[in-house]
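Our example pasted here:


***
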Amino acid sequence: MVFENKRVFKTLITVALLVLAMAVFAGCGGAKGPFDLDSVSLANSLVEDVSYESELMQVNADSVSSFLTLPDYKEGYFFIASGACTDCFGVFEFTDDEAAISAEDAVKMYFKDLADAYEKYDPEEANKVSDKNVLMRKANILAFCVTDDNDNAKELIKAAFDQAKEVEPEEDAETSEEPEEQPEEETTDSTEVAVDEKTYPVINATGDLSYSGFIAIIGDAAFEIYDYVEGTAARYCDIVNYAADQLKGSANVYAMIVPTSAGITVPDAYKDQMKGSNQRTALDNLYSKFNDNVINLDIYDHLMENRDKYIYFRTDHHWTSMGAYYAYEVFCDAKGLLPISLDRRPAKDMGSYLGTFYYDTKSAALQANPDDLVAYYPISNSYMVGKDGDGNDAKKEIIPDYSNYDISFKYNSFIGGDGDFRVLVNEDRQDDSACLVIKESFGNCFVPYLVDHYHMVIVMDYRYTSVNAINYAKEHGIKDVIFVNNIGMTRSSYLVGKLDTVIRG
């Protein structure tokens, strides 16, 4: 009798899944497509606005195939429960309907496997898969979810699908008719064709532009002058290329070159008056020198799009935690990760901060208007490996509370300041995911964002160690290596030389 009950139970689940999966929601009927879906917004809505029995964690893009056999997709996000439950969701955009239909079948199979896996020891979870799943497809876009809050999830997916824009088909160059050639007309009027340029937020400021050595001061903000040095820049790129070549097949190598505030937040009226090289042009030169084994993380445009926000300090040469967040968004896009928004993260205001620009210039204007240092934290159960008073391993805060420290010391709150190695551990991810960040101090407020996506983040500051990074990555099974350096570093022969010692020895 028990055997018969199980057979009936499994049959009912399978039938229910098939019937439910075949039901296409009414708004999708007759949709032609393809459609362009705001996948990031929908995924964020499913994370933030839907209730789940357990905290969800994102499955890295290269691991999705372990759960779902999907055709290649343009963009996709897949989350599963970190606890022992069936809650999950996925958002995927494919190139055409055929691929999405194939993916739909793969999701049905995943639901069946999920129910089978839970049937023996937690029938309620198995029932949730059959009774509380949502599976919707509109032409080339697909979304699904398993949760007790399924009605809410369905409404969010339906709203996102309704807002998806139909993509205009590209004209076939082979079949399109050639326009009839017209004879050239002579003209004495030479008119320059306007070229579309990106527009960014405007920053207004008043006051005199003055210089103190290599630092420009405009009102209560200071900026470090940057000059491009071809030979040193080429050497830096050669080092990164060498690392990527050595790690090809074992690790992805990413290169992020961080513009300084002089390239992003100088008030518009003073741009043409500033000394130094154009950082957009310099970055183009630098990124063009990386070979095909390097994944470029060009963050310039995204920082410019947010230049009117508090993304750089005024009294210090570093970017803020918010500035590093926008760089993290670019990394997530390249990696196929869903960024965890700032409003989901705990934040701590460490109070007033006076940085290097003030101490280098002793400017009264900077002293009278110190920065405010705000740190954004990981949302995962994570810590930094450190030592206690007896020299034993101990769990330390990734961003310690430095609000009561000296006003000049606040930037050291990020991973406790500079040091040869830092090891950050995410206890919510019990897998072998690990990345190695090779950086100078600009990387300090960037790495806390990475922790939520890996079990382990190893931070190497090449200024304070001689450990060979290539050997370290191979020996520790590192899958992602991320170079994070500010653009000023690429003109310093000393710092480029220090980097060379840990890459090529």
User: Anything to note?
Assistant: The radius of gyration is 26 Å.
